[in-house]
Amino acid sequence: MQDTVLIVGAGPSGLVLALWLTRQGVKVRIVDKSDGPGTSSRAMAVQARTLELYRQLELADDVVAAGHPAPAVNFWIGGRQRARLPMDTVGKQLTPYPFLLLYPQDRHEQRLVKRLKALGVVVERQTECLGFEEHATGIVARLCRPDGREEDCEAAYIAGCDGARSIVRHQIGAGFPGGSYSKFFYVADVQASGEAARGEAHVALDHADFVAWLPYDEHGSGRLIGVAEGHETQDAEHPDSLTFDDVGHEAIASIGLRVEQVRWFSTYHVHHRVTDHYRRGRAFLVGDAAHIHSPAGGQGMNTGIGDAINLAWKLAAVLQRAAPDSLLDSYQAERRAFALKLVETTDRVFGFVTADGSFADFMRTRIAPLVAPLAYGIEAVREYAFRLVSQTMLSYHEGPLAEGRAGEVRGGDRLPWVAGADNYGPLSNIGWQVHVYGQPHQDLADWCHWRNIPLHRFDFGPAQQAAGLEQDAAYLIRPDTYVGCADTDASVDALEAYLLRHLGPAT
């Protein structure tokens, strides 16, 4: 099956890759050695950028309705609320989803599985990839079926979405440099009461006894994520022996949260690693198989989903002979650069909130309480924090597919959302398109018709100008809704030269 993509692993990254490929007409086979979606997952946050991309498959509204949109994140130090990031007001001009959506990964996976099944693809459970061989026109993977029988699976490409212990990464010999933190994290699904249990997210930064409260609703149901302080050494070999009673409760109490019932509790080590190869030949690494890091900011699952969508349109273009194989090299160039920056950022945050010692305590409990309210009182700081956490700041400026600039928008940027203009409506079409905010000239319209690329015209006004867009410029939008090329003059020659470099002649 030389037109098929074999996906190993049915977590969120693998499921999203299967969904986006299937939607674009690519055949997939997705296998997972587990017997069903996870039941005790740790990922909770679905960021605004992920929801924007979910609009392409009409998934966003369903996911938002099933989850809990937290309108704000509160930061506590020394038993006092020191800063509040109001997502609903800071982000309302930046994205259709100005909130932090909290939606447990197990429920998230079940929804993705259901949507994939509706498209005619069923996850093959209890099926393990034992390894694969690559040849000139594809790969042959060895699969072990639920009954123990082994079979060969032929495919054009293989995508390892199989987690931190990825067999695909091991098979291609890719390194996984990084390290592990000495501290244990714990996660607990609980029923709680108190002022903090009313629907907003809360983070306490006291004496390295870090804890985050992520609500499922406005009635005290939610998840606690924190440091199992004081258990780094003695329980290193037996973290499963810890219970909720063993972890520090000072930070929990400091935000006025009272835990009344513990429904589920687990501990785990936190690692920070990024593979040195996202691609080798016909094999690709996606999600946790390529990068793992601290849970600071709720970035991990969303980054894996971003990997999958970035890779999906490129695989589809190559398999459908709409682009050369070299396009696939841009996957590593774009996504590995982001993962490295992400790990560096989450490392700094995680290190700050969990560091031991008198100096670290002094910075957290004396300096941070003074600086945080002042910083969050500045609108630009609040907006920057929202863009960073929501991943709407992510760009591919330094990537090989980014060219040009028009207004404040550069090639490689996420297309800015314009409130009230519905300029994201056409993005449900997973394909190249051109946007003009103003009046497109006839040459551009003729070129788009010849290239079979939709041309979308929008009015230009104060809202578009505030978003950084330029009147009458042309923005060539990639299938994953990032700007490929921005041209002030809306030059047909510039756009055609761009596509020839990256996709080849029109067919």
From TrEMBL:
Cofactor: FAD
SUPFAM superfamilies: FAD/NAD(P)-binding domain
Pfam families given in the database record: FAD_binding_3
Keyword annotations: FAD, Flavoprotein
InterPro entries the record matches: FAD-bd, FAD/NAD-bd_sf, RIFMO-like
Lipoprotein keyword on record: no
FAD-binding domain ranges (all copies): 4-345
GO molecular function: FAD binding; oxidoreductase activity, acting on paired donors, with incorporation or reduction of molecular oxygen, NAD(P)H as one donor, and incorporation of one atom of oxygen
Protein name stated in the entry: NAD(P)-binding protein
Organism of provenance: Xylophilus rhododendri
